[in-house]
Write a structure and sequence with these properties.
about 230 residues, alpha/beta, Rossmann fold, seven-stranded mixed beta sheet, 7 helices, globular
């Protein structure tokens, strides 16, 4: 097997190292020594967008993607919406955006070049907390899951307060979708306590539909506001 080659190492805003690595045709992004995203994981990243946008009761006009990664979720979201939609991707690390405009650009078919795509360099929490208008869907692929964080500050995204803010940032019927390496019953309960109708989907990690599986929470804001559970 070919050895991994480190192409570049940068520092995240919290000081943790983030690496772009390559082995043959496969690329890998690592954060603080943990594998965060592989170019072989297209299947589950695509499912994140397909499942969430497919659940909407209306055409998507405004979609927020948290985490650029290899560009798979952004590409899938763009493929799910029409020419009038706007899909914004929030990426914390500027170098990841640079990689996606350069070496990684062909991996997901140049999604940042799509005129419907907008790039925000910064914390996705800010785009959830203060949107210019409500989002139809929020797709989060910023960690390995609610209990496997790439950056410690991301814990606030999955907290009850973070879920309350996501609920308020969505249109009625809107969907919060969260990618994860593993299932987590505690997070499911927290989503329901925040008022979301919630289910978890087990999806194939690879584009070929074989091998490892990942998990996606689909948390939908009801069309009418239910009382929140305490």
């Amino acid at each position: 097997m070919l050895p991994w080659q480190t192409i570049e190492t940068v520092s995240a805003p919290d000081g943790k190292p983030v690496q772009l690595r390559r082995r043959g045709h496969e690329f890998l992004i690592r954060a603080d020594g943990l594998d965060l995203m592989s170019s072989e994981d297209e299947g589950s990243s695509k499912s994140l967008a397909d499942l969430a946008i497919g659940l909407l009761p209306h055409p998507a006009r405004r979609v927020l993607v948290g985490g650029l990664g290899m560009g798979f979720t952004l590409r899938a979201a763009l493929d799910c919406v029409d020419g009038t939609a706007r899909v914004e991707v929030a990426e914390l690390i500027e170098a990841v955006a640079k990689w996606n405009r350069d070496l990684l650009a062909p991996v997901a078919n140049h999604p940042l070049d799509d005129p419907r795509a907008a790039l925000y360099i910064g914390d996705v929490r800010k785009r959830i907390a203060k949107p210019e208008a409500p989002w139809d869907a929020i797709l989060l692929d910023v960690d390995n899951g609610p209990d496997a964080l790439a950056h410690d500050g991301n814990a606030l995204i999955y907290s009850r307060g973070g879920l309350d803010r996501a609920f308020e940032a969505l249109v009625p019927g809107g969907v919060l979708a969260v990618w994860s390496f593993s299932d987590d019953d505690t997070f499911t309960r927290r989503c329901r306590q925040a008022g979301f109708t919630t289910r978890v989907e087990r999806v194939s990690a690879s584009r070929k539909g074989r091998g490892r599986h990942h998990y996606i929470w689909l948390a939908q804001r009801p069309l009418t506001r239910p009382p929140k559970k305490r």
